[in-house]
Amino acid sequence: MAKKNFYLTTTLPYVNADPHIGFALEIVQADILARYHALLGDEVFFNTGTDEHGLKIYRKAQDEGKDAQEYVDEYAKKFRGLKDKLGLSPELHFIRTTDSHHKIAAQALWKHCEKNGDIEKRKYKGLYCVGDEAFLKESELVDGKCPNHPTMDPIEIEEENYFFKLSSYQDKLLAYLSQPAVIVPEWRREEAMNFVKNGLEDFSISRVKEKMPWGVPVPGDDTQVMYVWFDALTNYISTLGWPEDDAGNYRKFWEEGETVQLAGKDQVRFQSIMWQAMLLSAGLSTTDRVVYHGFITSGGQKMSKSIGNVIDPYAIVDEYGADALRYFLARHVHPFEDSDVTMEKFKEAYNANLANGLGNVTARIMTLAEGHLPHAIARPEPRGFPKEYTDALDAYQYNVALDFVWSKIQELDQKINHTEPFKVIKTDPEMGRALISELAVELYETVRMLNPFMPATNEAIKATILSNKKPPNLFPRKE
């Protein structure tokens, strides 16, 4: 397989609350893909960061009696902490929309779109959802509320600001979306196509600075700041050094590489319609693919502090370790559909598949190896991964890939029970040692496939095999 330049980005979480398990899902999925492509030999640019402008953040900072910059600095630090907490790739790039270069890039994109005749100033009156930082059509309301924020009342805004002529891009967006690979899963692509076919409305891309001063200044108009979405979406290319591209990363990864964005299912309109139209307007390459995941619910309900069903990823990592959380999110949360997650389900999966599964098989094999092999096995030569595994990851089916890995772990357990090397070693030492060596090699090759999913566990088990030592209890049972 030819090596390539692979660009991967998450959405940027809005820094108005602590990191939650929904974003942990997205960043872990992204990290799995980044590590997988690195294993394949691709050169990877992996991006995440924080979205720090907008009315919602400005109001939160005011409510807490803080300067807006001070407020976002505190939250950006918390999101940066996910890198170590979740065992993310050391090479992960982290961009903040308050970075000076990002502001320059957002203004440059504005100028490109304006030069192309796609930005104009108008007076506007409409309902605005602060939660989504977006205007709403009457047809989108559910019981008079935004469907994404049913507990928030939309506010009526009447002001003069700048609009992006999204309506001009209906045909071009339909041509873009007609390519099967641009959205995964397929039904989200159909959703995007239907949205465009139903007619596109131009959208507001600025706010009056006097009312909402926290944003990137509009080029040439000191009375306006950029609408948060126009600003934030630009991060996908500003992180690569666009527009100057002094290091050549924009050309290398965005223009000449494969570009993949990960996002939640509520982002289709923003990522695959608005953002792509902005790129088309500016004369830039569109995204090759956007992969949309579902939501995590708990006990059949949306997570809410008032209900008391919020699951804190930090708390799970503190008790069970980062790899246990990564494993659960990859195998027991569907990659595209909504999934119900409770701590009971997490503990059940942890005990059954990590403590009694992977941990137990490793302990069984390495107890035999340490007790009966005169020295450690030679490090197995790297070789390609099984097709079942690569096909699943190429299709973003993390759960299917791990189902395959766990089938190999179960086969190892069954092989121990069937061949009984602990008995053979007593009657035929040479045959017994050969069986144990074979098991150790197969364990090593199986664990290689855990690299993208459980990097620390991958390293720990490989190290114990190559040192011929039984490891400490990798996954202690939890009651």
Write structural notes for this entry.
The chain contains 19 helices and 16 strands. It has 479 residues and is of the alpha/beta class. Helix 7 packs across helix 11 (268-282) and helix 14 (343-372) runs antiparallel to helix 18. The two termini are 46 Å apart.
Protein structure class: alpha/beta
Level-2 CATH architecture of the largest domain? 3-Layer(aba) Sandwich
The level 1 CATH classification of the largest domain is: Alpha Beta
CATH topology of the largest domain: Rossmann fold
The helix tally amounts to: 19
The gross shape turns out to be elongated
Low-confidence stretches: none
- Number of self-contained structural domains: 2
Rounded to the nearest angstrom, the radius of gyration is 25 Å
Task: Give the biggest sheet.
Answer: 6 strands, parallel
Physical arrangement of strands within the biggest beta sheet: 3-2-1-12-13-7
Task: Give the structure's gist in a few sentences.
This protein is an alpha/beta fold and 479 residues long.
Note the topology.
Layout: E1 5-9, H1 21-39, E2 43-50, H2 55-63, H3 68-80, H4 82-85, E3 93-96, H5 100-115, E4 119-129, E5 134-136, E6 155-164, H6 170-177, E7 183-184, H7 186-197, E8 203-204, E9 206-208, E10 217-218, E11 221-226, H8 228-233, H9 235-238, H10 249-255, E12 258-264, H11 268-282, E13 289-293, E14 296-298, E15 301-302, H12 313-320, H13 322-331, E16 339-340, H14 343-372, H15 387-394, H16 398-419, H17 421-427, H18 429-448, H19 455-467
Parallel strand pairs: 1-2, 1-12, 2-3, 7-13, 12-13, 14-16
Antiparallel strand pairs: 4-5, 4-6, 6-8, 9-11, 10-11, 14-15
